[in-house]
């Protein structure tokens, strides 16, 4: 992916990783469109970044995605980068007799169904460009699950697997398929306390490293991996899978 001159749609651009990447890519001379549910944050981010466009959409709502994709295609026919970054996380307790799956279903809808639907709707536009990129933000938990969040972890493993297949299908087209797999990062994904959790990677450091990887154009096998996430990515190969699983399980809240 070239670093400037693109028209980029970033979902989940109202906060955390999506907002940080949107602002960094805007600063590099890209036309950036951000999407999210919170209109006040769309207004705040676009207000601080003149030229950036914000569009409100609920990516857990299939009808809303259809309408949103149509609007993006007609307003930005030159769109050549789609970054599916929006996501939610949650925990389920299967030791309980009344496991509540409400959040789990929303997580599947947002992290899987929404990504597959939006990508499918926008792929004809991406394929029509000479060079384009479809990216999804997965997680280090795609490679070793976090026991308190089985569905969340599995949505990320699903997307990793889906992206590998998609990359092969699209290899003779103009669409490059990338996976951004973050480590634990200081955002509010898991609640406000995460933004200052010293065990999490500072958002600015993460964003700077991702931008360096994008600029250096040295992405191996379509995976954007900062150094901090590499031990999870290679845990199985390194014989460390069970060790990580045990550590994660002991973090049960
Ligand atoms: N932070 C981490 O430790 C970490 C680690 C690995 C992977 N990730 C992944 O990174 C991505 C970004 O998360 P983050 O850490 O930056 O958390 P965040 O600050 O909570 O950002 C999540 C973003 O997704 C958007 N979103 C959520 N549900 C949506 C929906 N139904 N429709 C439209 N937008 C929706 C939110 O916008 P609205 O609320 O305005 O809709 C927000 O902009 C996620 O895919 C997450 O799984 C994060």
From TrEMBL:
Keywords: Oxidoreductase. PROSITE patterns: ADH_SHORT. InterPro entries: NAD(P)-bd_dom_sf (IPR036291), Sc_DH/Rdtase_CS (IPR020904), SDR_fam (IPR002347). Gene3D superfamilies: NAD(P)-binding Rossmann-like Domain. It comes from the Bacteria. GO terms for molecular function: oxidoreductase activity. The keyword Nucleotidyltransferase does not apply. Pfam families: adh_short (PF00106). The keyword Oxidoreductase applies. GO terms for cellular component: membrane. Belongs to the short-chain dehydrogenases/reductases (SDR) family. This is SDR family NAD(P)-dependent oxidoreductase. It comes from Tunturiibacter gelidiferens.
């Amino acid at each position: 992916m070239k670093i400037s001159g693109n028209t980029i749609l970033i979902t989940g651009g109202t906060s955390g990783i999506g907002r940080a990447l949107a602002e960094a890519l805007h600063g590099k001379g890209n036309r950036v469109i951000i999407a999210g549910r919170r209109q006040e944050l769309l207004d705040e981010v676009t207000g601080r970044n003149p030229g950036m466009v914000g569009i409100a959409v609920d990516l857990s709502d299939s009808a809303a995605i259809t309408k949103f994709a149509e609007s993006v295609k007609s307003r930005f026919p030159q769109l050549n980068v789609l970054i599916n970054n929006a996501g939610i996380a949650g925990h389920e307790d299967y030791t309980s007799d009344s496991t509540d799956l409400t959040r789990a279903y929303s997580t599947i809808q947002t992290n899987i169904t929404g990504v597959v639907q939006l990508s499918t709707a926008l792929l004809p536009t991406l394929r029509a460009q000479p060079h384009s990129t479809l990216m999804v933000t997965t997680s280090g938990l795609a490679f070793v699950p976090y026991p308190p969040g089985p569905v969340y972890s599995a949505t990320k493993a699903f997307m990793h697997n889906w992206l590998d297949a998609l990359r092969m299908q699209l290899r003779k087209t103009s669409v490059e398929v990338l996976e951004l797999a973050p480590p634990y990062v200081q955002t509010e994904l898991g609640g406000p306390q995460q933004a200052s959790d010293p065990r999490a990677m500072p958002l600015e450091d993460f964003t700077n490293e991702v931008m360096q990887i994008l600029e250096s154009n040295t992405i191996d096998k379509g995976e954007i991996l900062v150094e901090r996430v590499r031990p999870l990515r290679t845990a199985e190969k390194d014989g460390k899978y069970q060790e990580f699983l045990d550590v994660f399980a002991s973090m049960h809240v």
